[in-house]
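Morning. Coffee machine broken again, so started the prediction first thing and wrote up yesterday's gels while waiting. Chain of 264 residues, entered below exactly as on the submission form.
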Amino acid sequence: MPIIFKIDNIIDNLVSAINSRWKLEANADDSVGSNDGTVVSATGAGTDVSFGTAGGTSAAIFAGGQANQHVNGKISLPTAATDDFNFEYGSGTISFWVRPASTSAFYMLSDYAPSSDPDGFAFWQATDYYSYKYDEEGADVRLLLISSPSTDSITGSVIVASNTRISANNWSHICYVKNNNVSTMYINGEPVEQKVWNDNRPFVSSASSLVPGSTRNVGVGSQTGTLGQRYPGAIKDVIVAKGYAASSLQVKQLYLAGNEAPDL
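Came back before lunch.
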């Protein structure tokens, strides 16, 4: 594991700003706050969502698979946690690790529920199959803000989209930072795309599940709602810091900390 050189207040400021952290080492508990997640298994407890070892580290493991994509196997975060993800017009940081078993198109972290409410956000692993929509190819990582009516007549706004491909059966660190009107996506500690929105668009629309009073949940490893495109592989250490935009050096520190969910 890499040695971490902690510079005064560089990583500590980010750590102190974290609202919730789901390490997903052996359960879906929130190690920072009180927003414990719940395993929602479609075919019986522990069969399509479980906790085990993937690539040498503990993680939540999702059965997923193209044949079973439209079932509701996921980790559901409580409604109390949804406001943590609602950065609105301000700032925020989302960090997590993924180890896909396939490079097909799947949702990693999302509150998008197409069956009931076509508004929300989605961290999406995209493939060549969808390149006709975005003129981009490969197993890239995209953050979508999905709104109705959509802004491109298909699925909504692509806020940031990496050109750095993630590969199957390898751990990759994903980090999204919103600093007011500047959105940056990092893969494995390196910035892969940055977009400046002149209108400082919100992280979610006013109709999203993340607005106060919503009963819809953020899903880890799937879309939310009654249907869900399940993620095949492993996910761990989901971190959200509302109101705090991590610096590039802090993101690098998160990556160098490794995927073993250290105390930082």
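The two ends are 13 Å apart (CA to CA). Going to sketch it on the whiteboard this afternoon.
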